[in-house]
Design a protein that fits this description.
alpha/beta; Arginase, Chain A
């Protein structure tokens, strides 16, 4: 299944600037199961997008968006992380822009590992309701609750949208690099404080529970008091305008049969962020 059901002209690997990697994995989920169904739901929703982006005036699909074969054979969290890391390494070697879609948030670990190794001084920007800074959880250091602990071992991290954490995570916080949801609700501009904490190159990891569950109920660990659509987009637009975004992931969609709006939100988020990143190249 291809993102947007784009024709071969705009979805073949050789000519595509962007590669989407589906990772239908939820082996360490601890509450709502179903993130393994997330990539398929996003891809199924994507053909319903309008591929002209009003805000940027661009049709970013013209840069080429290839959807690669999903990683779905990993039996352990470590195997999954390694498989994602190897695939993303190949994309970067070929000059592609990687987009990983989960799956639970642990799928980001492999992508972050490769990006941090290949791209000097990259900052990892996390949009999430949770800190994800546990050293290990339920016997695994690759649990979805450990994503940013692994990232922090490799690169500077900046955390946006947080509103829930365990007390054991508090010592790992870098206070000046944390922006809580309560301080961002209603903000549509003026993100200089966030930008000041980022290096020139940025990888973005997005857990969909950063959004308020009123618009994104279909997540593995929904948390009240989240950000709205335009608050998240305003931040992403500011980051892409002022920094070089080198890749991103979108994780933790747990689709339901009776509400497809969250699936569409995730697909539109991916396409909108790509529009911000590549509009100048396709106009």
């Amino acid at each position: 299944m291809r993102f947007g059901y784009l024709p071969e002209e705009f979805s073949n690997y050789e000519e595509s600037r962007i590669v989407i990697l589906p990772v239908p994995y939820d082996g360490t989920s601890t509450w709502v199961r179903g993130a393994a169904e997330g990539p398929e739901a996003i891809l199924e929703a994507s053909p319903n997008l309008e591929f002209y982006d009003i805000e940027t005036g661009a049709e970013v699909y013209r840069a080429g968006i290839c959807t690669d074969t999903a990683i779905d054979l990993a039996e352990t969290p470590g195997e999954m992380v390694e498989a994602v890391a190897l695939r993303v390494d190949g994309y970067l070697e070929d000059g592609k822009f990687p987009v990983v879609i989960g799956g639970e948030h642990s799928v980001a670990i492999g992508a972050i590992r490769t990006v941090a190794r290949r791209i000097p001084k990259v900052t990892i920007l996390q949009l999430d309701a949770h800190a994800d800074l546990r050293g290990e959880y339920l016997g695994s250091k690759y649990n979805h609750a450990c994503v940013m602990a692994r990232a922090k071992e490799l690169s500077p991290i900046v955390q946006v949208g947080l509103r829930s954490m365990d007390v054991s995570e508090k010592p790992s916080l870098v206070a000046e690099n944390v922006f809580y949801a309560r301080d961002l609700v209603g903000r549509r501009d003026g993100f200089d404080d966030v930008l000041a904490r980022l290096g020139d190159r940025v990888y973005i990891t997005i857990d969909l529970d950063v959004f308020d569950p009123g618009i994104m109920p279909s997540t593995g660990t929904p948390e009240p008091g989240g950000l709205g659509w335009y608050e998240v987009l305003s931040l992403l637009q500011a980051v892409t305008a002022k920094r070089q975004v080198v890749g991103f992931d979108v994780c933790e969609l747990c689709p339901t049969k009776d509400n497809h709006a969250p699936d569409f939100l995730a697909a539109k988020l991916i396409y909108t962020l790509l529009s911000y990143r590549f509009a100048a190249e396709v106009k």
